Batch of 2 targets.
Target 1
Amino acid sequence: MVQEFILRPGTEYDLKPLYKLLTSNFVSLNCSNKMLRYFVLFLFLISYLQALAQQKYEREIGVLSEEVPENAVEFTEEFLGKSRIKWFKEEGLEGYSFEAKARKNRRKYSIEFSADGKLEDIEFIVQWRNIPSNSLKHIQKYLERDLEIYKIKKAQEQWIGDKNELLKTVKGEINEELTINYELEVVAKIDGVYKLFEYLFSKDGTYIRHYEVILQMTDNLIY
Amino acid sequence: MKKRICCILVLLSHSLFAQQNISWGLLPSLNFNKKLPRDWSVNFKAEGRQSLQDEKNYLQTDLSLLSSRKVGLSSTIAMGYLLRLPNGDELRNRLIQQFIIVRRYSALKLSHRFGADQTFGGDEPTVYRLRYRLSSEIPLSGQEVDPKEFFFKLGNEYVNSLEESAFDLEIRGLGFLGYVLNPKAKLEFGLDYRLSSFLKTSARQRSWIGFNLYQSL
């Protein structure tokens, strides 16, 4: 027998008949309490996974050079020569960009491009102790004032400039036109909590900006 | 690299299936972690064991509560208690102490876990264990494991145990395929192979099919 329920706004309803109808159907299907519990758990899991599927996150994925704008590939191949280049697409909430990573002459390079292939900057890892001493003094003074107790984990030299000027550096020409910055990864303990920061300083050690790096969850490697 | 890992996993699982006298079972777990102020956190884990041999008995449930504190950006100390509820047997208690280091490299994370535990209660004698686990998380796309991406988790653990005056070494190898649901949740599915008693006459081999959910609250 088919029962019809029509809901009208502003009216109070007795839901017992509906509950009875639902439970009687389960009984008629020989569903035990255990099966019903599994069914509810399954529905909960499905709705949990569906809710997750609707969320958007920043992420980085490996891509082929064919998927990267031609001008970015051309510049990178000219700059890095025969190095093995790995390409990544960084998807953010407001768009995407490309990054090339490779090693050349014992340096680990990372070259960033906008979505249309416009060069943004070139970075390579350096030993922080090798930063010119005057600049390093300024940097350390700033960090001591800002963080008190800290440790520099990693340093990168950043080059920003015109493509042609950057290509001249491949031939070993020192180019005064380039903007050189230092990007530092710094660990500090703030209010009893260990945090990781990324600081950017100019060539002479002047502070430009910094932000906190949000570390990814590692519970599955700890417990 | 990824192809090589796939080949290793296929070969490993093939050789395991080809072996005789391996007991098989299911080892699902739920893991909840709550961060507290000043780098403290509490972790609750519920793990079940279901045999897939002969009568397919449900074996036991483990409930554990660990309290941990970061002692560096990459290092953590954890201590806690585990309650073992064997099916039809007496309860067992376990005290746990751990020191964990998680190193972040450009294309993988590597974790070293040093641990000690003492299991007591019931009619069984107390068991003392010292263990070391090396595990790594390798992203399957990009250089980091981002949300909605898959990863491999490979691990190797050595568990030394002392029960009365009998010493035993158990070697564990695990290979899991994981998926990041969101920045606070990870799912893993894979195989946990355990070889023990091989120092004596006959080795004991157990393989668990694991399904883990890690949820940070």
Target 2
Amino acid sequence: MRCCLKIRSEYFFSIRFYGGVIILLSLSGLTGCASVEPWEKGMLAKPEMGWTPDPIEAAMESHIFFSKEGSSGGNVSGGGGCGCN
Amino acid sequence: MAKKRHQNAALLTLVTSAFSLPGISAKAEGVPDSTSVKYRYTSYVEDNAPERFTVEGDLGRYKIQANQIQLVQPVGERASITFDYLSETMSGASPWGVKQGADNQPELIMSGASIKEERQDVAVRLKVYDKESSVSFMGGHSTENDYKAVYGGLENELHFNQKNTTVKSGLKVSIDRINPTQEEGQSRVSEEEKNSTSYSIGLAQVLNPSAIVQVGLEYAQLSGYLTDPYKLQDSRPDIRKQTIASLGYRQFITSTDSAFHLDYRSYTDDWKVKSHTINVAWYQNFGSRHVIVPSIRLYSQKKAKFYGVYFEGGEATEYFSSDYRLSSYEAMSYKLKYIKYFDTWSFTVAGERYESEGSSGEIENPALVSFTRWTVGFDIKFD
């Protein structure tokens, strides 16, 4: 698995590329965003379209990554705790 | 709950439409329509420390078992209150540091397996909704035998353009107190404080009836004792300034009855740590009662300016750490989640595998963590 990870790790360096794609996607969407009427928002109201569909599990994930990685933030608050070990 | 899930989406659309008509008053949009309870049990198990690099201490790393309960209660027509409770037990060995062996081979020093801790976290959030805005007040308290944190925050949402545009802002504060437990042969601080404050602002924009995008910016400042008291020769600056930019995108695909999630985060701080995180998830509905969610997360980090893989000689410089979390590395995690909806409740099970390894061109810190996580739980809605 680790050797596969090594091969796949090369793709990490294209993260900036993916980031650029998202920015372009966002900008292209923003420039063309016609006003969506309230009765057209059925799909957007679905629970699976939420920013954080499962906040309780997201809080746990956020706390794990806060404790085990060198950077954090930008998402659901993971609560307090040392995260020292 | 399965039928209700689809009915609720339709109902929400109707309610949203009703709000757009003048003179119609109803429960404020977003206020939960009933009491709900969520429960999750999580098992987190780290892989053993690598035997060929470990020269001292126990190989068996951290295991955590956690129970979480969340209660959401509507309060009148314009508010809701959320209680969160977490209890977790942690046990196992933890990396203390890495020393230089023969032929520059890193040698890992682990603690004994005697670490056993418990943490409890209680938080409450009051959210008040208005026609074109909402404001949330939250506070919480986390306690473990060597660490206590009191935290609070304020969040605000303002809706514009028929609620197609939302501006969000937030403030979070945490005051932490550290009382490290002393191990024989270790010299540690007896009591220190750490404070953190973060400010965030974000913009969410509906693009079309099936897509929405969100951008966010956060600035956080940590001050006080930021050194890890459980590492050998660890000394870090007493201030850390973090900047985080984030992007999110959601797209519903009608033809396959699925939702696509894309999240990206860029992080940088004045310790020179930089990271990029991408998370991609696919919510696939099978009828109205089954959802399967595969997801993948990629993480890439550049080391802190005072990081060195070997802790020896660290006393010669003002700041130094051989903590693997401050090294240059990459990580990938895969997660698969299944949700089964019944009439009044739903069942959730999720499994995640996380693996990390050092960046090419760097000596890999043998303490880099890989873990497996399982979460099971249920959500109940009371009418």
